[in-house]
Write a structure and sequence with these properties.
single chain, about 160 residues, Four Helix Bundle (Hemerythrin (Met), subunit A), about 0% strand
Length: about 160
């Protein structure tokens, strides 16, 4: 592997982990009072819980698509957004976060071990590079929304 390729891999991993101009999810949720997980702010479409769950579902879908030719994506948009405003309990919250972090590590593993430029055989032109960049971009967008909600709640 040449140096430029390793630099690219390192930068993608850094981006996936919330590097540079992007916040990471752990820091974004640190200290969030549990009562604020399901608070709906006037004129904003989602709660923090709904954003966390959406991140989980979308990232899982990108990961599974990248590695499993038999994976079937959920129906867009209905199956990517939870209907409930808040998690049913702390366990649901913790399980969602655990899956996000586990799936992120699995995606990073793909970035480290797979050919970034090879087309995913069951796709229509997607590559691991594209899926990793899409996941990083998607997560960063919704993490920023969580920060905005926390600021509006006075919890940032």
């Amino acid at each position: 592997m040449n140096n430029e390729h390793q630099i690219l891999i390192d930068e993608i991993i850094h981006l996936l982990q919330g590097g540079n101009a992007h916040a990471d999810l752990k820091k974004t949720l640190d200290g969030l009072p549990p009562d604020f997980r399901g608070v709906k702010i006037d004129k904003l479409p989602y709660t923090i819980w709904q954003l966390v769950e959406h991140i989980r579902i979308a990232q899982w879908d990108m990961l599974e698509f990248s590695k499993d030719s038999s994976h079937e994506s959920p129906n867009w948009p209905d199956d990517y957004w939870p209907k409930e405003l808040a998690p049913k309990d702390d366990k649901a919250w913790d399980n969602s976060l655990k899956q996000i972090y586990d799936d992120l590590e699995a995606l990073i593993d793909l970035v480290k071990t797979q050919d970034l430029y090879k087309k995913i055989p069951h796709g229509d032109g997607q590559t691991i590079l594209r899926e990793a960049l899409q996941a990083a971009d998607h997560n960063a967008y919704h993490i920023a929304e969580i920060i905005v909600i926390r600021r509006l709640l006075g919890a940032w």
